[in-house]
Design brief:
This protein is mainly α. The protein has two domains: 1-114 and 217-248, no CATH class; 127-214, no CATH class. The protein is 72% helix and 4% strand. It has helices at 5-21, 25-41, 46-52, 54-70, 88-112, 116-125, 130-159, 169-200, 219-242, and strands at residues 76-80, 83-87. A two-stranded antiparallel sheet has the order 1-2. α2 packs parallel to α5 (88-112). It starts with a helix and ends in a 6-residue tail after the last helix.
């Protein structure tokens, strides 16, 4: 379904808000299910998304395993002598982290289904200043740029005859730590090139800008937005009455 950018922005805001406010695994599973439903509605290819985000997914799983082993409390599930290796509270923390990050990644995928110019037009329709709308669209584009920078350095290491899959876990972590800095510097260099290109084209030369397309909400957009708002209201009321709402 081709949704208006404003409908997608509303879905992103509501899903991420519910993911942050929920502190129960059951509630987070409901939010994650709603996020998957929204992804299906926006025609996200989950297989392609898993391939593109495999490095992020591996990092999320690694952090979840570390949390499950380090957080103590609850019933002891696995132990060696008096040393607690795995507890029910640790598994709960790990599941909460995985579910929250899954919702956040799904929100990012929903945003990626629209072109940057469409998101910019949607933000302008919401009365956001053009500079902020443009910066938001550019920020979304730089997530894949940073991913590509990191992936290119991984390929450069592989071309030098180093099989990363055969390295130990500790060596991999050290290697990834060494690659983060040049990947960030490469992304910053591209941002400087973008800034020079914007200045050369007279960015902010006029106070008022014209729009190539005129966005209009269809009946499908209204149905999606009303359904999302009703679901969010019912979900928050339910969490509040059950005492499962995370108060920030």
């Amino acid at each position: 379904m081709k949704l208006d950018p404003r409908s997608r922005l509303l879905l992103i805001v509501l899903l991420t808000t519910l993911a942050v406010l929920s502190e129960d695994v059951g509630n987070l599973m409901i939010v994650a299910g709603a996020a998957i439903g929204a992804g299906i509605l926006c025609r996200i290819s989950f297989l392609d998304a898993a391939k593109r985000l495999k490095h992020f997914l591996s990092l999320i799983l690694f952090i979840a395993v570390v949390q499950s082993l380090t957080v103590k409390g609850g019933d002891i599930l696995v132990h060696i002598g008096k040393v607690q290796l795995l507890t029910s509270r640790g598994i709960g923390f790990a599941l909460e982290f995985v579910l929250r990050m899954s919702v956040i990644l799904m929100a990012g995928l929903i945003a990626s289904t629209a072109e940057g110019s469409e998101m910019t037009d949607g933000l302008l329709k919401l009365r956001m200043p053009y500079e902020l709308a443009f910066m938001s669209a550019i920020a979304l584009r730089y997530l894949p740029v940073f991913r590509d920078e990191f992936a290119n350095r991984i390929k450069a290491i592989a071309l030098r005859g180093i099989d990363i899959k055969k390295l130990s876990l500790w060596t991999k972590l050290k290697l990834y730590g060494y690659l983060i800095t040049p990947a960030i510097l490469g992304a910053m260099q591209k941002s400087e090139e973008l800034a020079r290109a914007l200045n050369a084209r007279g960015f902010r030369a006029f106070k008022k800008r014209t729009m190539l397309r005129e966005l209009k909400l269809s009946y499908k957009d209204w149905i999606v937005m009303i359904t999302a708002l009703v679901f969010t209201a019912v979900f928050l009321i339910r969490m509040y009455t059950c005492g499962a709402l995370l108060v920030l």
